[in-house]
Amino acid sequence: MATKVIKGGTIIAADRTYKADVLIEGDIIAQIGTDLSGDEIIDATGCYLMPGGIDPHTHLEMPFMGTHSSDDFDTGTAAALAGGTTMVVDFVLPGADGLLAALQDWFQKAGKARTDYSFHMAITGWNKQIFDEMPKVVERGINTFKHFMAYKGALMVDDDEMFASFTRCAEIGAMPLVHAENGDVVAHLQQKLLAEGNNGPEAHGYSRPPEVEGEAANRAIMIADQAGVPLYIVHVSCEQAHEAIRRARQKGMRVYGEPLVQHLTLDESEYKNKDWDYAARRVMSPPFRDKSHQDGLWAGLASGSLQVVATDHCAFTTEQKRFGVGDFTKIPNGTGGLEDRMPVLWTRGVRTGRLTPNEFVAVTSTNIARILNIYPRKGAILPGSDADIVIWDPEASKVISAKTQKSAIDYNVFEGIEVTGLPRITLSRGQIAYKDGEVLAPTGSGRFVEREANAPANRALSTWKELTAPRKVERDPKNIPAGAQSMPNATPKNVIDVKDLSLVFQTNDGPVNALSNINLAVNGGEFVSFIGPSGCGKTTLLRVIADLEQPTSGTISVNSMTPSEARQNRAYGYVFQAAALYPWRTIGGNISLPLEVMSVPKAERASRIAKNLELVNLAGFEKKFPWQLSGGMQQRASIARALSFDPDMLLMDEPFGALDEIVRDHLNEELLKLWAKTQKTVIFVTHSIPEAVFLSTKIVVMSPRPGRIHEIIDCNLGTERTLDIRETPEFLEIAHRVREGLRHGHSYDE
């Protein structure tokens, strides 16, 4: 394998500076030392050797406002190499076909890249498909998801959608990104300005004041904290947003801030230019700010409260910008910057003393690689790292001009600025990709860089959140005030009356007798358990009561109504064997669903949700998603949902059957408390004899198919029960009777 040696240069890392040679074998840095030899010598005398730049924020060939950004992955990455950047991270914007379909489109676009590349995935809405596809995106090597808090009616997501996505990110080990601007306020200000006749490019800045960015940054930080996930805020342009990040980091929150080189060096006076084209070319979001914000951004980079510098390279030609003549809201947002980021930052940062050379490397490469979980493959000059190296001449100068740039746009927002400090040679994975003004890397030579999930910040935050999560205080029943679990007094009125009921299923193999000659009366306020061997028709009988199955013969009344009338009048709530919660809805949203169907007003829905969550001991969990709760907690949430419209009875089909014994015991106690408070009639299907005896006032013992009632056993165990009652002779006697009833019923029918 051919080797290269870079000799005579000074290595600048994020944490130290030293003179050394660098030996490259193929794509990889093989050795760092002195007097190294190789097949090809690259002279770096008088130059610095720095890790190739990584731009974490680009939009190449991006659809936006009815057009596409003018730089594709060919011209955009050529500009990057000319500026010392060897990797870009672009944004995938999904359409109606979902995340994976959009990702495939972006892979096709990126086939022209001359640098290595990776992607962030945008979340522009919320539904089950997005929920399901996010882990698959992570499997494809993408560990970040972008959320727009701006662009109302297009890309913007609301707080509920953002919290759902952030929580999903926490679950799959990914990190959310946000464009932090209050889209609702921006939309209002835009319409107000247009109505007043203020329609030029300068109005763009007026419509997006620093306050809307600061508010959104604070809101995103709070949502991320509650979701238990790190947060990356893109294009931080003002002190209000920076202050939110600084304050969060001081509290130990994992929040990262990304200013752009444009916001560090250009200001809002650019929009006051009398030339409409000049001003419109500089329209981007957030807009350029008053110069007073720049000192704080530079200080943030030096102190570490801001970690990276990007470009948000999203270039539109002058002709495309003219779409907004007469209406500033139609000016495509975005500027260039890939070729200029590192020279401008070196000139305005290192050469002015705002940044050290090491800090420059940190904010243009190393910190980015660490945050995106690709360090030390990228962002480092170390043995084993990719040989992405820029040979930087600190004394080389040029005047920035659109006439000499590699980008496809016809202007440059940094036009006329003289920069000192330029790449002499840029190596991408060991190959000379740029040298002395010429891009040498062929179109399509770039590679996709996979980024693993569960970066160190994710792992640390997950551990902390687990240790500090709310935990219920477990108390000895002896320390619970007497009567807290007392059994309600039964109301004598029959609420369920079944007479001579039979059910025959017709199958391809002939008729199957599921139920035969069932007669049963249930009083209001009773807790009745159905127990029997598998296939005896317990669940089938419950489904007949619920009008989910139709009997072949016999009659049944529920609250003096037919089962169909009872269902239409919502006389009962049904709890299934599985919790059956919608994963894309919060716990509160799941409980709200039947109320929404009933058109219950929002305020009343909120009241009922709070009341029922308190009943099942889940107060404070309404903003959580099902996957954040244990199996037992999910079943309690499903009970709360069944209670949401205040039915007269609960029909429960083995709701605790899949849970371990400890959790099951706990939920049995919780269910007794709930029953005591609500005075509901409960019909409960179970396979467990101890569970049936502990919970019930009456146990219906069923025999095998065709299902018949073998025996009805009263549970006269008093009005107060704790788990200790299971050791009493009275309890054991009833359990013995149930067991004998099951055995004799089974033997008789066989």
TrEMBL record:
Its cofactor is Zn(2+). Pfam families: ABC_tran, Amidohydro_1. The keyword Zinc-finger does not apply. The keyword Hydrolase applies. Residues 496-725 form the ABC transporter domain. It comes from Elaeophora elaphi. PANTHER family: COLLAPSIN RESPONSE MEDIATOR PROTEIN, HYDRANTOINASE/DIHYDROPYRIMIDINASE FAMILY MEMBER. This is dihydropyrimidinase. The modification N6-carboxylysine is found at residue 146. It catalyses: 5,6-dihydrouracil + H2O = 3-(carbamoylamino)propanoate + H(+). Keywords: ATP-binding, Hydrolase, Metal-binding, Nucleotide-binding, Zinc.
